[in-house]
Structures are given as structure tokens and as C-alpha cells.
Fold:
Amino acid sequence: MSDKNILLMAHLMRRAGFGASKDDLIEISKRSYEAQVDLILDSEPKYEVSKHLMHRYQPDYGSPMGNSSNGASWLYKMIWSDSPFKEKISLFWHGIFATGYAKLANGIVLHDQIKMFSKLGLGNYRNLLIELSKDPAMIIWLDNCESRKGAINENYGRELLELFSMGTGNYTEKDIKEAARAFTGWTIANKEYMTEKSQRDSVWPYGRLAMHFEYKEEDHDNDEKIFLGEKGNFNGEDIIDIICKQKATSRFIARHMYSFFVEDEPPVPEWPYKEPNNPEAIDALSEVYFNSGYNIKEMLRFLFKSDFFKTEKVWNKRVKSPIELVAGTLRLTKEFYRPEKFQSATNSQTSFMGQHAMNPPSVEGWHWGTEWLDSGTVVERVNFSSSKLGNINNSGIRKIIDNVRAKTNEIYSPEILIDLLLEELGEIIVSQNTKETLIDFAESRLKDKELLTDENLSELLKLVGAMPEYQRA
Amino acid sequence: MTTNFDLKSVKTMGLAAMQGRGFYYPFDLALDSKERIYVLGRGHDYDTRGVRITVMDMNEEYYGTFASYGQDDGQFMWPSSIVISDSDKIYVSDEYSHKISIMTLEGEFISSFGQLGNKDGEFDGPNGLIFDNKNQLYVVDHRNGRIQVFDESGNFIRKFSSQGNNEGQLNLPWGITYTSDDRLYVSDWGNHRIQEFSTDGEFIRSFGSKGEEERNILHPSSCAVDDLGNIYVCDWGNHKLKVFDKEGNFLCSNRGEGSLSKWAQDFLDTNVQEKEARLKADLVFELESFKDDPFTESSHIEKLFWCPTSISFHNDNLLIVDSSRHRIQVFNTVQKL
Amino acid sequence: MLDTNQKSLVVIQLSGGNDAMNTIVPYTNGIYHDSRSAIHLTESEVIDINGSLGFHPEMGEIKKLWDSNNVAVINGIGYPVPNRSHFRSMDIWHTAESESIAPDGWLGRTIREIDPSHNNVVTAVNFGRGLPRALVCKDVPVASVGDLETYGLMPDIKGKDQRENALNYFSRMYGPNQGRDAILDALSENGVSAMIGADILSGANSKYSSSVEYADNPISNNLKDIAKVIFADIGTKIYYAQHGSFDTHAGELFNHAKLWKELSDAVGDFYRDLKEHGRENDVTVLLFSEFGRRIEDNGSGTDHGSGGVAFVLGGSVEGGFYGEQPSLEISEQVEGDMKYNNDFRSTYATLLDQWLGIDSVPILGKNFEQFSFIKKG
Structure:
């Protein structure tokens, strides 16, 4: 039975990354927990394979014409990073600032948005919101390019308040209108050409074009506005300043963080009616938000070091999103040590499981927790996990099997085998029922050490991959 | 020393197209004895219709397409280079299936050779292809870090070089070309240099240093040599065409000057709303994010090179395959007096 | 509780934007030939229908069904403010919502109406991986079957005994004796549901027997699988499959012909199979695409347009033309495209109310004028 420190590290790596194998955890546990949190938050990741190599074999992955390469190249980053926390943060923000390919019909501009999340996602929340308001994908997605003085389009103003900062119930319809007025003129360069191409899904003549922000003074509503009780000739940045000062904002973001990193909260539309799982945690995070000057990284540092995160009660509580499931599994199997053709097919898996990267069903993003699970997606998730873990030709699984064989050299029993396997796969904790079932299987097929053949181990791993606990993190 | 050398953009050919008249991520091209151009499409992994050979000529006449994605005879998975022999047979290297396929100009499969491995006649990612004046075929076997030589039927003759970064060694090389003075130039992609060899594989010289300055190159994909020995390099990593003289001195560079091809014009003429919107757009501008990041710059500014993968001379024309923009840019060289 | 009404709907999505004008061809119209010098179909090539319109040359099998009065052709189908982006336009057809973004699909909502307590996990079966938005609705289970023969949990465990063994262990891990939290509940419920569904469907596969020989291509395989499930009478009401890509920007003549040959032949085989088993009146097929294509060609193909064509076929269909053939006159064109004259939701409403016996108004949001292509009685 592994010690509490390693189990805690395993939990941290699942939440701040996409999991870690036992070998990784042994290395990591040489540091203290606090030091590991700081390292994850403060260091820049290194990628095992250069993006040049990726572009050379898979040209679309760098300059995505369509949508599939976006998800596929993002998966590469998740797999090749020595510390994929940056990728996890981008995924976190992508779920909140959900922008979809369906309307953009342009992979480059979404790719650029994710890049922006990766760059600014751990910084100051105010800056992030400002960059978001200037993001071309977001501007088209929520029609702000159609909004101008005298013909205000409220879409961005509304969603900014409802979904990106304060949450329903903390502002009025008038505030929405005033916010929308402030963002008039925040559009994209060559708007007519770009929106024409989006609506027609045009790759002509020479592929898709990236887009950039343009501020059109002549479209901006320059008159006085009253927003959340404050008066002034506000422009977009001013609205964001006021938004960031609000307690509601700090709590809304805190609750999202809690849901993504600690345990699933109810869906966002229910937040006005349902209390947070842990109100004290939200209070505490909210305080850090203000004390640190809206700093996301400091909020997360506080979160990861808090008892409410470290407690065993939340270990393995969340349902892995499809992207987390796939990325975590691929990190275990280590099958992509260089760009490979079948990464495209792998990426399709996340969409069969209900999460098409960079193409959420609406600006609400994806619904998490139990809503990831239906009879169709469970089949896809179980089959994927089972098949990947059971493929012993992949070097990651091969290493795990080698470790297990080495560690059972002296003493062996089916129970020890199961314990070791679950440790090697990243210290996965399972229920009594699952453990008994796995041990029974091991009793029937791998009763003695001599039966630790590749074939038998592969069958066992297929069952382990299929277990319900593997779907959680 | 002032250079009296310059490059002039002549025109652009091609159009992005999933199937039919156009290309999707073209990687290389070759000309037959009747000056028809065979453009090899790499396509992309999710939708494989882009894997095909598109036939056209310098007047942008379209003659059809053939070949498709797959592992059967006459199909490709990751097609990389194309060359046409004097006897008008097409050779295509496939760096996923590790084989060279031979077909007629009509696309009829003749034979193929090669499989994954590192023995003689085996490949790990065959790339660049070129014939010398004795009809010997040179194949860049890039993950094996070597060049292998075959006869026209695919029989192994000899090989040279090895994986590494010393003089004469190669690291993930890509394109290869052959000059009238019986020399081979290999684009040593992973070592950021061009290396010259004799046809026997004797190392002659290497030039190029890694970097983003004008006189550097970064991951070169292909090069061509003119009669004066000037070397024209597809500086793939910097998204530029760079020219060096035969001593290796930098002469000039070009960031790309794509314009509307005939096929592009056809498209716009049929899609009037898009044409009108495009005319109102300002397609050239500068952004902060362009500094030190030519990849991003090329994603915004349509006329620039974006991952140029192949360069070759045909008569007076320089043909550059501008892969991520699905087109061919044609240049002439100009000697100023 | 099995629905004693054996009627079912098969929806086949033609992905990519089927070129309506080269499907139902106005071959006597000079504007057609003038606008499409590169890709027009001539009088001698098309299969004449009524002296001015003809089917695409490869639609022979569908023509046979037309001759038995079992094909409804709905010309000029579309929606206001046409969108020419694949994803967005397809979403509109899937969600039956053209003005805002809806999270669930018209068929998902339909299944919820048919089986509100989810008694039958195979009420709808999707043939293809990944659930199309049309079938999405909260809590509504839909199986997505790639290949009926191999569909199930952990399909790479081969061998009858080994599979049975593995599935036993699976059901133990997902069984009811868990220490409860909401997520485990959801995993259990859905895991067990999936097992039951897979079990029922594999029964359908093994019971099948027929003299019809389908071609070996994806749409034929899908329709054959659909036939298997129909004959097994497991209560499935909605089937979904896709064919494509119809996105013929270039090389249209060749590609469009291949796509229609495959589809038309597959539909022909499917109907022969239904007839052999006496089920041809129980099944209605809808063929639709997210938009039509432009009137003018671009030299090699056509680009995205609007105003398409849909087909409803079956033994209970009253054949004929519904909707109007859009005019090609410049004054009637919408930015170079054909103008729609009937909303696709009218077709949906007809199928819901008159075929499936489900009230269409709550599903589609409002009342849409209906067609009369379903036989009465």
C-alpha cells in the first residue's frame, strides 16, 4: 500500500495535469508537495517533440484548414509536454469562453485563441478578459463585429456578464445593454471579407486566413453609460475594470475553478439556485482573487495547497472530460514519441465521446460531470480505455508490465498483482467491488507468477481499462 | 559587395481544392518531357482526398488528377516527393509506407519497391528523389540519415552518408537535387545546412548556419542550383526563398509574392460576393505578433510563403511549391547590370 | 414496453451539400446548360421523369421506386437566411432551429416523446461513430453503431467464451452493488444500458437472413445493418446514417455520380430486402442535405449554395413532386443560388405527425404547414 504522500501527489498530477505513472510519481515525490505545486505553476513547459517536426509530417496541424487538426495538435502538446498544466489551463478557459468551429469555419483563428489562453490564462484576469474581448474568434462567435453605435448587438455584452464573469442574477438587462454599448467598435479587420468567408466556409483561394482585432472609432458609441451603478463614458476596458471589482466575479471564477480542479459543481444555469459544494472554499478563493489583484495563478496556488483540495474526500471524484481521458491515457501508453498518422483518428475519439475540441455545442460550453455519460459515450470511453491499456506493444504499457514483473519476483499473489498494477497506472484507487472483481479475474487467469504472460496481462489490462474508476480523476 | 542579383515574381498557379482542379498541401512537383506539371498533394490526415497528383501546365491548363490515399498499388499514405525519369515514368516516395512507387504519366501503376527497415533497399521515411545523367535514382532515406542509389527499376546500387551532424552526415534530410556538373545537393533539414556530394557520395562541402537572420537558414526543405552555381534554398523554417552564390555568400531573399492564379480568379468570378468583399479588404498589414514569428505572419498575410517545400528550375522559371498555401509561386532571376 | 406500431423512420444525411440541380435536373432549361458548361448533364444522360426534369443518371434504382409511386421529391427545400457553412447549416437541420443555437436535436426530442421513461434503450440507433446533434437530447440513450457485427463493449476481446467472460466481469464492476455517488450511479446505469443495448443489437445481427446481396460500401453496409435491426423487431423507431462527401467543389461529375450510384443502389437493395420480409410499408426513408449548391459552376464543380432537394421514400409514401422547382431566372436567384420555397421543418412536421404519430409542435417549436406525401389509412 503506497504512502499518503505519493497518493496525494497522484491526485495533484491528475488535477493539475493529465495524470502520472508510478515511475513519474517516484521522481516527483522527491520534492515536497508545496514545492511540486510551485514548480507546476511557475515553470515553463518543455515539449519533447518540436513543432517543426510536427509540421513537417502533418502540415495541417500547424495551419489548420479545418477543425480536426486543432484538437489533434492540442493532444500532441498535452502528451509531449513535461508539465501539461498550461494545456490544462487552456482547456479550463476553453470550457468557459467556449467558442465553436461551427460558426467560425476557420481553424487558425481558434488555434490562436487557445494559444492566447495558454499565454495569458495564468495571469491577471482583467487582462485575460480584455484580450478575450479583442479575440477575433470570440468577436465573430458572439457577433460583436455586427455591433455598432445605433445598431447595438447585445450578444457579447450578455455572455460576458452571464457566462464569462459575474453569472446570472448579479446585473440587470440595462447593464447588458450598457456593456454592449461600450464594446461597439470592437471588431475585426477586414470584417466583411472574413465573415463572408466564415459564412461560406470558404478555403479559397489559398487556404484560411488568420484574423486580427481592429478598433473602429467611428462605430463606437461614445456617450455616457451607467454600468453596475457607475457612470462614465465607458469603453470596453472600463466595463471590464468594473466587472473585475465585483464580488460576484470573484465568486463565479472561484466556483469554476473549484468545479474544474476540485469536484464537479452543478451545471452553471443552476448556480443561482444551488449553493456551492464548499462555500468556505469559494469564499477563500474569492479573497485571494482580490488580495492578489485578480491573479489566476495565485488563486490556483492557494487552491492546490488548501485542505479542501488535498482531502481524500475529493480524490477521484470528478468525471474525466473526454479530452482528459484521451490525453491521460496517451501519456500512459507513450505511443506518440513522434508525429504519427493515427493521431487524427485518436482526436476523433474525443468527439465520439462527446467533446469535439474547439467545437462546443454552444457558448455554454460542455456540461460536465454526469452529463458526459450516456449509453453511447460510455461505450466509446470504455472501449477506448480498455483497448489502449490492453495494448502491451506501446512502450508505456510495456514498462508498466516490466515493473510489475520485477516487483513480483519475490512474492506473488493475484491480490498483490492487482495492487501493483493499479499503483503503476498512477495510484488509481478503486472500490472494494471493483477490486474484488479484478482479483477474481486474476485468480482465474493469473493464479501463479508463471502465468504472467503478455497475453494474460493484456487481458487483465483490458478489464482494468474498462473499470468505472478509470473514467474518473 | 553589392549584389547585382534579384528575384522577380512572375505569377502564381494553383488553388486550394479537396479534389479535382487544385491541390491540398502540395509537397512537390515534376515535369514530363512535354512540359506538363505533375503536382503531388500531401493532403491532410483527417480528410484524405487531398492525396493525389494533379496534372497541369505552365499556362494553368488542367488535365485531371489520379492516384489516391491508401496502401494498395498506386496509392499513397504520406506522399513526399515526385520525380519523372527521362523515359517519362513517375516516381513517388511515400514516407509512411516506406516505398517508392512507379507509374505511367496516366497514373497506371507499374511497380513499387522498398519497405520499412535499414538494410540495403529498405527505407525509414523515403523523401527526396532525383535522377542523375546516368538514370540512377537517388533517394533521401531520411530517418536512416542516408542517400540510397537505385537503377530505374528499383534495384539497389549503392548508398552513402550516415545519421549525424558531422561533415557529410545527415540529420532528417529532405530534398535532393542534381546539377549539370554532376553534383548532388542535399537539404539537410535537421542540421540546417545544404551539403554537396559527388555522385559517389564523397562529401564536397557544406554551407548554411542555423538561424533567423538573412544569411541563416532554418530547416531547409529543398534547393535548386543554376548554371552559375548560385544556390536557391527553400528556407522552410523561415518561410523564405534565399539565394546564395557558389561560395555560400548570401545574395538575396524573398518572403513570397503570391498573387491570384487563373483558377483563383475563376473561383472569385463565380463567387461574386466573396470577390467584392475581398476587394474591399486590406490583405497586407503588420502586427506585433509577427516579430520573430514568420509562421504567424504567413498565417495572416496571404501572399507570403508558408512552408515552402520544393524548389526547382524549369527553363528560366523557378517553381516553388508553397505547401501551406496550396499553390506554386513562379519566379525569374534577374541579373542587374 | 414495445410500441406495437411498427412504423420507423430512416434518416440518411447526405453530408457536404448535395448538388440539387444535378440530382433533379432541369435538363430542358437553357439557363441550366449555360451556367454549367463544365458539369451539366445532357438530355440523353439523365433519366427523364416528366419531360422537363430528370434524375441523375446513376439514380436508376430510385427511379424504379418513383415508378411505383413511392418517392416524394421535395424541391426548393431550405430555410430563411440560408447559411452556407457546413457545420452551421447542418446544425440548423439537426436542431430544427435556424435563428439561435439549440443544444438538442429534433430526433432526440422525438425519442423523448416516444419513450419518456427510457424503457427501450434501442428506440433510436445511429449507424456511425459519434452522435449527430439531431439525435442529442438530455437523458435520451442512443446507440452509435459503427458495424453491427462487431458492436459492443470491449470489441477487441474476441472469441465467444472470452467475451462472455469479460462482459460478466464488466457487469460486476458496473452492477448495482456500488457504494453510491451520483457519478457511479450514472456510470452504472449507462454501462448496464450499453450492455443491454449491445446484447439486443447483436441478437438482431445473428437472426438476419436474406437473399438480397448488398454492395460492399459504407452506406450499403449501414442500410443492411438497419434492415437487420428492423427485422429483429426490437422496437427501434428511428435509424440514422450518413453518406458523403457531397462537397463537390471540384471534380463534381465523377464524384457526384459515384455517390449517387452507391446511395441509389443501396436504397434499392434496402427496399428489396424490406419487400422480401413484408416490411416495405413500415419504413419511410428521408434523404436530406444541409444545402444545395450554386447555379453556376466554377470550372470543375460547384460551391456552396442554398435551396436544395430532399427525398422521402417508402411503401407508405405518396409519390410525386412537393415543393416547387426553384426558378433559375436571375431575378429569382438569391446571390447566385436557388431560392427556397418550403421550410425543411414542414417535411419534419409531416413525418412526425403523419408518419410517426407524434405531435410536431412541441418538437419543432411551432406549427409548420405540412405536405401530403404520407398515404392516408
